[in-house]
Amino acid sequence: MKKLPILMLIGAMALSQSCFRMRWPDHKAYASFERQGVPLQIMDTLIEGHSIHFAVSSSSDLPVLVFIHGSPGSWFHYRKFMLDPDLGKKFQIVSIDRPGFGYSDFGKAMHLEDQARVITPVLKSLKSAKPMFLCGHSMGGPVVVKLAADNPDLFKTIVIVAGAIDVTQEKKECWRHLMGKTAFRWMLPGAFRPSNTELLYLKKDLIPLKADFKNIQCDVLFVHGDKDTWVPMENVAFGKKMMDNAKSIQVDTLHSADHQVPWKRFQDLKRILMQLE
Questions:
Q1: Regarding beta strands 50-57 and 40-47, do their DSSP bridges make them parallel or antiparallel, or are they unpaired?
Q2: Distance (Å, rounded) from C-alpha 202 to C-alpha 18?
Q3: How far apart are CA 122 and CA 53, in angstroms?
Q4: Each residue's pLDDT expressed in tens, for the chain with a length of 277 residues
Q5: Strand order across the 248-254 sheet
Q6: Whole-angstrom Cα distance, residue 66 to residue 51?
Q7: What does the DSSP 8-state code read for residue 214?
């Protein structure tokens, strides 16, 4: 009987690792999209030995809108946008499992520069004569910045939603270092392990990113909630100051919105995206 609590703990931890992977099996995704009459392609590609998993909906004849998720997350967190009939008529919508999440080398977190490098070939393969738009939320924000800086001619507009791009606004979060230690890392369930690791990386990766802002030449749109306590509005002011070579910079402040803009303020973000030209 003394072994029972230990076995229960092990079982609970194993279950949590499975439940918190935050990913959607391909067969379930296909079935869901088929029920709603929305075309879907799910693809995997190998870039520098890293598997990148991504989903594409709507027609290839349309401008491309790419979503880059936060931390943790996966492509399916943007399925509501991909299933939306209005957005589907305007864009071919792409959502990517960032490295370390979903089915893109799950569990293996990568530095910001490395993420951008392995995602870039995927985006270039999807580029057509039509414009390409890039939208990143939270941790997806600095990934979008790095992608746009490394590929100044690839995107018409980047949309940074509650993006964490200013290192001076990062909280110390000493507990992350503790949870990153081998002795404690097992306590983090599923996708929270690579999330903790990449957010530790981010605090250092944002420093060299400062030199990249000047390379952004496309249109930039910031979307941020004025009640965001996780990633404060000061990140927007920093971005406006640093992106002095951007073609244009606009800010859409969502009043009374917190950090979870894509889900709590779906209609607002949809309205903003529908205005992209």
A1: antiparallel
A2: 26
A3: 10
A4: 444 333 333 333 333 444 466 798 999 999 999 999 999 999 999 999 999 999 999 888 999 999 999 999 999 999 999 999 999 999 999 999 999 999 999 989 999 999 999 999 999 999 999 999 999 999 999 999 999 999 999 999 999 999 999 999 976 665 455 554 554 555 556 667 878 889 889 999 999 999 999 999 999 999 999 999 999 999 999 999 999 999 999 999 999 999 999 999 999 999 999 999 9
A5: 40-47, 50-57, 92-96, 64-68, 132-137, 157-161, 219-225, 248-254
A6: 18
A7: G
* CB distance 185 to 200 below 8 Å: no
- Is the peptide bond preceding residue 25 cis, with omega within 30 degrees of 0? no
For residue 91 the two structure tokens come to 């864009």
Tell the residue number behind the tokens 């420093």, with chain if given.
207
Residue (of 192, 162, 168, 171) closest to 257 by Cα position: 162
Global model pTM greater than 0.85: yes
Collapse the DSSP code of 72 into the 3-class scheme (helix H, G, I; strand E, B; otherwise coil) and give the result: coil
Residue with tokens 């990449």: 198
Pull the structure tokens for residue 185: 């890392």
User: What CATH architecture applies to the domain 26-274?
Assistant: 3-Layer(aba) Sandwich (3.40)
Residue 18 burial class via C-beta count within 10 angstroms: exposed 0-12, middle 13-18, buried 19 and up? exposed
Amino acid residing at 4: L
Is residue 250 within 8 Å of 220, Cβ to Cβ? Answer: yes
H or E element at residue 65: strand 64-68
